[in-house]
Design brief:
Layout lengths: L4 H9 L7 H5 L12 H13 L5 E3 L4 H13 L3 E4 L6 H4 L15 E3 L4 H15 L4 E6 L3 H17 L2 E7 L8 H9 L4 E5 L2 H14 L4 E4 L6 H7 L7 E5 L10 H10 L6 H20 L12 H10 L3 E2 L4 E2 L12 E7 L2 E4 L3
Helix pairs in contact: 1-11, 1-12, 3-4, 6-7, 8-9, 9-10, 12-13
Length: 350
């Protein structure tokens, strides 16, 4: 996610009408790095829980880290809103693919669409627009990647495509000679990768070297400029999906984009940045709604009170309507398909 606390600076600078409550809202802010690692994520969650001035958390970026944090936050009644997690199990429960939906933790929310939307969008684009008929599926055995791959398999089959093979690899793998050979020999015209960019880039490069014309596709985990750099020139045409749209293309994000650029921050805001802004705004709106008297006091059980208030937020944000359904998912499940062109992800034309 681009921007980190820089995004929060932008949110607070635009938090008009809060008066003396602005300093109290600052209690929400504490920057910790989970390094995208479950063990580190659990440790950081424990630190946040122990700080009684923290009443809400924005993050994390990584799904595996989120899983490691969820119970810790739940036990402490501490609300978290992720701007980027997309694995369905985080809100729908581990048996969602079998049709049993049970929200695991009512303190967890997200502002981004989940993978039940991403995978069908990719499958539809590949089958209808790119005329791809045979897919080979690879995942990295992680919660995010495995769930995304399974969702794609189902969606591509429903479009009329054929899954010609699948395999699972360790997340740290960078040599995909065996998997590329399997995909090519199976006659795949697209390889779908459930995982993230640091492995997807090398996979794409090796795939295109072995069989030019075969596309690499994935979810928001590969939506990174680092992917394009690693994958190389042969990766033009690869596709990915990501929740929402680039903030530059949304009239609702005009002020956010202008203010962010004017501040001169080095990191790109990206869709994750827009969703982080909306997540922070949701916490601020919920928090300030608890101050029902002029003294600025907060109910004693402020963490639980905030959770209930977040569940009921409803406003127009940077990325669109901000609100949450009964499972903690964003009410807006928008998703965009991107195509790599000239080393840059660009919105694919329908």
């Amino acid at each position: 996610m681009g921007g980190g606390l820089e995004l929060i600076d932008v949110v607070l600078s635009n938090a008009v009408g809060l008066g003396g409550l602005l300093l109290a809202v600052a209690n929400l802010i504490s920057a910790l790095d989970d390094k995208g690692d479950p063990v580190s994520g659990h440790r950081k969650a424990t630190e946040l829980v122990a700080d009684r001035s923290v009443v809400g958390v924005v993050g994390p970026l990584n799904t595996s880290a989120a899983q490691a944090m969820q119970k810790t936050f739940y036990d402490a009644h501490l609300t978290q809103i992720s701007p980027s997690n997309s694995a369905p199990a985080l809100t729908l429960g581990k048996d969602w693919q079998q049709g049993t939906v049970v929200r695991p933790y009512n303190t967890y929310f997200r502002t981004m669409a989940n993978d039940t939307v991403q995978a069908p969008a990719a499958a539809r684009y590949l089958y209808v627009k790119s005329k791809r008929r045979k897919a080979f599926v690879i995942d990295d055995k992680q919660t995010y990647g495995a769930a995304l791959a399974q969702s794609f398999k189902k969606a591509f089959g429903e479009e009329g495509g054929i899954i010609v093979g699948e395999t699972h690899v360790d997340a740290g793998r960078r040599d995909f000679a065996t998997q590329v050979s399997q995909a090519v020999n199976a006659g795949a015209d697209v390889v779908y990768y459930g995982g993230v960019y640091d492995a997807a880039g090398p996979l794409s490069k090796q795939l295109h070297a072995a069989k030019p014309g075969v596309l690499l596709a994935g979810g928001d985990g590969i939506f990174s400029y680092a992917y394009a750099t690693t994958a190389g020139d042969g990766a033009d045409g690869d596709i990915c999906t990501a929740g929402g749209a680039m903030p530059d293309s949304l009239p609702s994000a005009d002020t956010f984009v202008k203010d962010y650029r004017a501040a001169g921050y080095s990191a790109s805001y990206s869709p994750y940045g827009g969703y982080a802004y909306d997540a922070t705004s949701a916490l601020i709106q919920a928090y300030t709604s608890l101050h029902v008297d002029p003294s600025g006091t907060v109910p004693s059980a402020q963490r639980e009170s905030l959770r209930a208030a977040v569940q009921n937020v409803d406003f127009d944000g940077v990325m669109g309507k901000v609100g949450f359904d009964a499972n903690g998912d964003a009410v807006s499940q928008a998703v965009t398909v991107y195509r790599l062109s000239g080393g840059t992800w660009k919105e694919a034309k329908a």
